[in-house]
Amino acid sequence: RANMVVTAKHIAEAEDSPPGTYAVRFRRRIDGGLGSREQGPFSCHHVLVSRVVHGPGDLAIAYLAEPVTHIQPISVMQMGFLGLEGSPYISAGCGQEGPGQAEGPRNQLLLCDQNHLSSVELSHLTYPGFGSSPESPCKVNRWDSGGAVLIEEQDRLWLLAAHQTYRSAPMLWSWLDEAQPQLLHTPFAQP
Question: For residues 70 and 85, what is the distance between their CA atoms, to the nearest angstrom?
C-alpha cells in the first residue's frame, strides 16, 4: 500500500521504537528523478516510519508517516502460489553486488530474473544462491534482506515474499490474510 512497506524483521528489530526512529529510502523522487549513491542519500526520497509491526518468522511491516503516492504499490500474492516450484521470479535488492558472498560494492538496486524458485511452501520459499549446484546466474547477497521476491502473472507483478537469508524468504499470506485462501497455483484467467 502507499503507506506500508514489507521488510525483514532483523532490519527493524525495535518494535516499540518511537515514531521517526526508522525511515524508508525510495530511489525514485517525487519529481521523477532517481537518487544515486554518487549523489548521496539525500538525493533519494525519504519517508519516516510511524510504527513497525513484527509478523511471523523474520517479517515486519513498516507503516509510513505519510503515503508515497508517486510510486505504484505492488500487491501481495495471497493465493495460488503453491505449485510455483520451478517458476521464474524476479529478485530485487540493494545489497552487495558480488561476485562472491559478502563481496563487492553497494551502488544500486539490482533486479534479477534469471533464476527459478526451488520450493514454495506455506511458510517460506527457497531459491538458488551461493553454493547451489548448478551455480545460479545471480544471487541474494549481504544487505539484500527485506528485498522483494516478485512473480509476474498476466503482465502484473505480485510480491510473494521478502528476502531473509541468502537462499530463503518467508511467505506473507498467512500474516496478511485472515481467511484461508486458495493456495494451489492455477494461472489467472485472461481478462
Answer: 34
